[in-house]
Amino acid sequence: MMSPELALSVMTVPDAPFEARVTAAAAAGFDGIGLRPGDRTRAHEAGLSDADMQAMLRQGGLDVVEIDVISGWGATGEPLASAQRHEQRVFELADALGGRHVTVVGDVEGPPDRVASTFAGLCDRAAEHGLAVGLEYLPWTTVPDLPSARRIVEDAGRPNGGVVIDSWHHFRGGDDLGLLEDVPADLVAAVQVDDAGPRQDDIPLEEETMERELPGDGTFDLSGFLGALRHVLVDTPLCVEVISPRLGRMPTTKAVAMAAAATRSVLAASR
């Protein structure tokens, strides 16, 4: 497999300060990073300007690839209004530091035409800031699998709308590699990779997802996963999202280096 562009997702080291995140990602050979609006706010509070942050990204040879996360976008009433207020912080981050896509998650309400219209509107607003919108399916929501996410994106019909395919959610959901082989490459905003041990039936998925493993340390068929997405990863970033308290307790540089090395190992095995 061709080596895809690697990005360090924000949730792999969620508490890392901006400078530490950038330094660690550059040292580990990542091409890009993920950010949240709060990361920019905390960097400002620590005395960094947007110009300082831009300079650090350039020095590290990094782009802002993904911005996390808008939830509630498919709701109604106050949850939707809250999501749209958060949107503005996402767009301010993208305007200041760049960004390829914003990830959106959560339950959606209403008939298909209302859902498609809501997603299309979000895509149109994001396009004004140079962002794509990646709809990530989560098995405990009303967008539980790839077909559900594809349907929304295709019904919306926006060129900057796509899906985010996360190995954790895919294997804990439909677990059908054939769906991955059939997804059009231009419909995928990003692929996220991570691993997990055997399913713990007594633990809700929403809790279990916060205890992930490094790629290759769990039971997922990541070789099959990445192989099925070979056609996608030619032009689509591979984002390493290992949500793990164990990694979170490590020094940032060590945790990021481990995540990079583990991902390159599974990529090599999938060739």
Automatic annotation (TrEMBL):
Pfam families in the cross-refs: AP_endonuc_2
User: Which keywords, in A-to-Z order, does the entry hold?
Assistant: Isomerase
- Is Lyase a UniProt keyword of this protein? no
Xylose isomerase-like TIM barrel domain ranges (all copies): 23-251
Q: Which GO terms describe its molecular function?
A: isomerase activity
| Name of the featured protein | Xylose isomerase domain protein TIM barrel
Source organism (scientific name): Euzebya pacifica
